[in-house]
Amino acid sequence: MKIKVFLSLLFIGFGILFCVILLINHLQQKVTDRQQKIDKILSRNEDPSPRIPRTVEIPDDIRQKFATVPEKPTLIAEFVQSGYFQSVKFSPTNHNLVLSMARGNNENNIKLWNINNPTTPLAEFSGYSVSFSPNGKILAISDYRGIEDGVKFWDIAEEKFISSISVPVYHNIAFSPNGKHLAVETLGLELWDVSNLTKPVEVIRQNGENIEYDHTFSADGKLMATIDSRNDIVNIWEIDGNQVIKRESIDVTNKKYGRIEAMKFSPNIQNPILAIAGNDEDIRLYHPPDWQNYTVIPAGNVYDLVFTSDGSTIISGGTKELKFWSTDNGNCYASLEGYSDWVKCVDVSADSRYVVGSGNDGIIRVWDITHFLPSRQSNIPNVVVPIYFLPTNRLPQIDISEKIDKILKEVQTFFADEMERHGYGRKSFEFEKNKNGSAKVYLFEGNTADEYYHKSTNSRVMKEIKQHFETYNKFFFIVVDKSKKKKFSADDDENIPTVADIKRRMSTYIKDSSDVRRHINILLQNIVFREQGGEIILKNSLDRYSKDAITYKFAHSFGLNRDYRSPSFLMSYNEQSKHLSKSSAAWLNKCQFFNSVNTYFDDKTVIGKFSRSRGKARFKVEDADGIYQVRLLVEPTNENPPPNFQWKEDSAENKTEWEQNFKGRSNVLHDVLTLNCEKMATVKLDYPKFSNNWIKIQVIDKLGNRVYMIVGIRGNPLEYFLQSILD
Question: DSSP labels for 275-310?
Fold first, then answer.
């Protein structure tokens, strides 16, 4: 009888466990589906703007007042190849030749292309890996079908095989920069003397338990980096004649993620920095001779990277785009879109004229960047870019560039005065200028007539702007010339989508608002978002905006929020407001746009789980760069506006204005804490009773990097319990 009871209880226990597993899987799938739906809604693209030619010509004397809009790199060739790309390389001596290798089929997976003939490859091979010789004359191709003829050498000009090496190849092969050695990844590490290709000679064999894969050489060939396959440790080897000496082992990965995606040495012989990208969404730069990691670039997903020939730029392949990173300050100053899937491979020609990228969409794309790198790197970082956006059926205002210059200088002076008053010196933002010191205003001619821009002005204007300007870490001040006047809305200065924005957009697609709230809460909890750059788009005539109104917009884009704690504060938006609060001045003191020489290197900010009790919000913040200020923002739900909210003189009208445009819609600063750049801190901030279920925690670090996290306070207890298990 006892056995039957035991078996019954065991059966019930397994049944309960099975149901819990099903429930967890169900919730995971719901979260995934909801995330995809939110991503689709928030990132949905507008249809292309209708092309309407210019109906009125712009006189030359007026056009000459403006700067010319820059052009992005030109796509010059596309090659189609099936499978998943593993590598793509330019010939080191001929930028017209591109070598690609893909997986997914065993026959002819390696192809040699000429960019002038993108339809037919020059040659095709089957193999596991491939490498150009430094003189560009020879290909080394490893065969994954057996030890016999493990590596074959092929003469490009003669179009014939020369010789082979019988060696088991487990991963990549690579020529040394001087062409003397070929590195072969076996169960250990082998170097072959290939100075005489008809008689290759094995000169070095390092046996070991682990496969050393993904070789990369320094520019002079004296150093080689490999990855230990057992634990993703990077080994640095020194090559001295026919000797190989291990100089350093670098533990580079976060064990939670634990995979290295790419690594390359910089071309600087005197300072061969090693760039390593892991799947923790960072590029880390390791500096000789101690091989310490001094700089981290928050690059997002990176699957491959390469240095330009002068070492000033890293080009990375990631999620649907190539990105250009300055090695001096970590700034992403350019990107190339046009990919429909992950970009897994990237290379730049030896003369840095062309860049090639390929990935999971099966297309190799070659871009002309001849005039791209120098012009972009000469730009001063962290400056405001003034743009005058002109539809095709309008003539430019004759004095608009002078008006833009005047208002920028007035707003600039306001911030300088306020920063000086708070003891930070005359710090302010900078904007692009002409040689005479006036604002460098770009004349951007839209694709169509002004009626098109009356609806969804911001998204439609920015979509066209992005086709010519790089928007990553940029700040745009855009004046749109439109005929129709639009009433000013309280939401016009909100650049970053709030939870209210998300809920409003979602409600169009999902009818159950409680369902929206519940799942957005799960999705946003513990996700930290970076704030980068900004934009101010004036949708009406510049004359309709006062200096104060534009100053509010600048302050908001620099990271400040509505602040009703005093009617004298700028961000209270009252008619009599004149000054920056002390906490706002402290925030701007570290803002990157007030510190144009700051770097963009950024260690991750971690905001711990939120808890509250007795009117206090409590959470931990960690940032290796040093935490400078933490802010807590809420969406007020109280019926009466705060005492310092005075948009209308009549009290009844003021209350109506609050209820219609602000109540539960706008993030309002409730409490703030300025720290002494601690790397870890437990933060306690006042939590109001009158807010809704959502708060926003905003952090700026010592380097001016800004992040925020949206936190849901209340929800289904079971879901929160299961979510904590999933985390």
Answer: EEEETTS-EEEEETTTTEEEEEE---S-SEEEE-TT
